[in-house]
Amino acid sequence: MSHLAPLARFGGLLALDLRDVTSDPAALDSSGWWAVTADFEGGLLCARFGDVRPAPVPAPGRWRGPAPRDWTSSLDRGAYTAGVRRIREHIAAGDVYQTNLCRILTAPLPDPDAADVDALTALLARGNPAPHAGTIRLPAHGVEVATASPELYVRRSGRTVESGPIKGTGRTAADLLEKDHAENVMIVDLVRNDLGRVCASGSVTVPGLCEIEPHPGLVHLVSTVRGELRAEATWADLLGATFPPGSVTGAPKSSALRIIEELETAPRGPYCGGVGWVDADRGTAELAVGIRTFWIDRTAAGGPVLRFGTGAGITWGSDPLREWEETELKAARLLGVASGAGEASGGIPR
Questions:
Q1: Other Cβ atoms closer than 10 A to 265
Q2: Is 160 in a helix, a strand, or coil?
Q3: What's the whole-model pTM score?
Q4: How does pLDDT run across 192-236, given as a tens digit for each residue?
C-alpha cells in the first residue's frame, strides 16, 4: 500500500485532512466537501475532507510511468473489431441502437512504492489539459485515480443539474461523419430521459446540440442537457437515474449494458464511471465521466499496475477498423504522457 497521504484535487482546489469515507450516497446530502468516485460497475466511494483550499496544480514532480511498449489490452485488434461486428448484429436484430465498446490497457509500474497519481495529474495538466482534470488519492481505500476527463457527467448548482455528453471524435472537425452526429443525438435523447426521471416535468432542455469542442490532438461533438431537480430528489435518486453515464453505455441503456457484459473481458472500474466533487454546504457539484482516466491497481496478481481505458460508440454505420483506430486516437496522447514519451507513437497494443 502507498504511504502517501489522502488528498483530492479538482478545479483549482486542493482537499486535505480526510475526515470520513462512506459508500452511502446520502452523505452527499449532508454537509462538507466530498471527493467522489463511482466505478462503472456501481461501487461508490465518498470521502469528506476538512481542509479545502485554493491551490494550483504543482509543477510535474517525480513520476516513473510504464515503458510505452509495456501496455497490454484486454481486447486486441481482432477481438475488438469482432466485437464491433457483433454489436452491429445486435443492432440488425433490433436489440439496441448503439453500444459503447471499451478495452482496458494495463502496464506494470516500474517503481510502485513511489507511484503518485497526483504527480501524474501534474504531468497530464501540462501535456493534456482538460476541463475536468483531477486527482483522488486514497491508498488505504483502494482509490488512486488521475483523470484528464473532457466530459461532464453531472454539474449541480442548487436544484439545477447539467450534463455534457460527448459523442463523436476525430483528429479534426473534417473527420466527423454523419454517423457521429446521429450517435450524439441518440445519447442526448437518453440523457434527457435519465434526467427526466428526477427533474421537474417540462424542465429538461438542450441548450447546446452537437457543438464542436477542440481538445489536445482531437475534436469532440458535445451537447448540453439541463434540468431542475424535483424538490424531493436526493443524490441517491440523481445517481440512480443517470448512472452509468449514457455516453459510455449506449441506447437503450439496459440493452447496451447486457451487450457490454457479453463482449468486454475486463471490468471498467473508475473508467466510464464518475469522478469529481460535491460541496454539500453550498449545494454545488461537478462530476466528470471517468474517461481519459488512469488508476493504480495495487491488487493485481502480478503486482501493482497502472490501468487506462479507451473505447468508442458503435452504431449500424460503424466500420470496425475505424472504431479501433478511434480508440487508439483517444489513448495515444495520454499513454505517451504517462509513459514520459510524448505521444506514444506505435506504443499502443494492437
A1: 11
A2: strand
A3: 0.94
A4: 999 999 999 999 999 999 999 998 888 899 999 999 999 999 999
Q: What is the pLDDT of residues 295-306, one digit of tens each?
A: 999 999 989 999
- Is residue 293 within 8 A of residue 309, CB to CB? The reply is yes
List, by residue number, the catalytic residues.
Answer: 151, 167
Closest CA to 294 of 191, 143, 98: 143
Give the three cell numbers for residue 155: 454539474
Which one-letter amino acid corresponds to residue 178?
E
Report residue 290 CA to chain centroid gap: 1
Contact 32, 18 (CB under 8 A): no
C-alpha cell at 74: 484486454
Residue 144's contacts (CB-CB under 8 Å, 6 or more residues apart) are: 2, 115, 117, 136, 137, 138, 295, 296, 298
Domain 74-114+151-338 has CATH 3.60.120.10: yes
Give residues with Cβ within 8 angstroms of 14, minimum separation 6: 7, 8, 52, 53, 54, 55
Q: At what angle do helices 77-92 and 253-263 cross, to 10 degrees?
A: 150
Q: Residues 6 or more apart from 316 whose CB is under 8 A from it?
A: 88, 91, 92
DSSP letters spanning 213-226 = EEETTEEEEEEEEE
285: amino acid identity, one letter:
A
On whether the CB atoms of residues 84 and 314 are closer than 8 A, the answer is yes
Q: Left if phi > 0, otherwise alpha if psi is -120 to 50, otherwise beta: which for 32?
A: left
In this predicted structure, what is the pLDDT of residue 332? 92
Summarised one tens digit per residue, pLDDT across range 59-80 is 877 899 999 999 999 999 999 9
Q: Which of 153, 164, 64, 157 is nearest to 108 (CA)?
A: 64
CB 4 within 8 A of CB 23: no
Query: Which residue positions in the chain have pLDDT lower than 70?
Result: 1-2, 341-350
Contacts of 160 (CB under 8 A, 6+ apart): 226, 227, 228, 229
